Each structure stands twice: as structure tokens, then as C-alpha cells.
Amino acid sequence: MIFRNKKGISPLIATVLLIGFTVALAAMVMTWGSGFIKKTTEQTEAGTASALKCATELGFEISGVSCNPDKSIASVKVDSRGSVDIKSLKFRFISDAETTVEDKAEVLSAFGAKTYSGFTKPNPNTKKVEAIAVISGGDGKDDIICSQAIEDYTVNCPTI
Question: What is the pTM of this model?
Fold first, then answer.
């Protein structure tokens, strides 16, 4: 059987349809991609701002530790050397047997000093104290835990 009256779309219409589909597909990819890139950029900017604030404005040091008779920590003196207030400190008390963590939500003013005491989770035979600062994110943002700015102090409690 020979079909002499075949009907189909002309090459011109086929080309126009292909170009139309390509443009529509490109527009969809661009719309999705721009939202994705914007979200990723905003997250990166926020993380960079937090890290920069911790690195440039924060500075503190554990300047002294006093011990209880069981060699647990009685108090820790911290000096602020940065231009930002420290909202709270997370203390880690490390011994051979265990590590305990305690938060102290007491503000340490910029360039100030404070002695923290009254720890509720004593860790006998503490060998090392670490402190991690938490600073304000500012303008209603979440607080920033400056985990890369850890200060430590080797404890040498006298034997009684």
C-alpha cells in the first residue's frame, strides 16, 4: 500500500515547536536555579558573618581555676579581651574517667573579668577545663556558639 497523501507537520512548524519547548525548559531551570543559588548564598553569608564575628570580635582567656578538696572545680576565672559581650559560657571539665559539661548563662562584659562558681556537676580529679563562648547574633538572630574559639586551662589541684 502506498500512501501518497501523507500529512504531517512541516519542518518550519517542527522547528518552532522545538525552540518553544527548549525556551520553556530553560525558563523552568533558571527559575529553580535562581532560588537555589539565592538560598545557598544567604546561608553562606550568615555562616561567614558568624565565624567572622567569633574570630575578630571575641577574645577571652581562662586566667585561673580553684579546686575543691576532691579535686573538682570550685571556680573558674575568665578574662574577656574582645569587644563583644559573652552571653554565656559552656564549660567542659575533663578528667581521666569522664567529661562533664555545664552552661553558665552569666554575661561577661567586653574587656571584663568574672569568676564563675557553683558548678552543679562536679567532676573529681579534673585535669583540664575548656570554655566555649556564646555571643549574641544581633538583631533578633540566634545566638552564636563560637565552637572554634575554645580556651583551655590545665588544672593542677594540690593534693590535700
Answer: 0.71
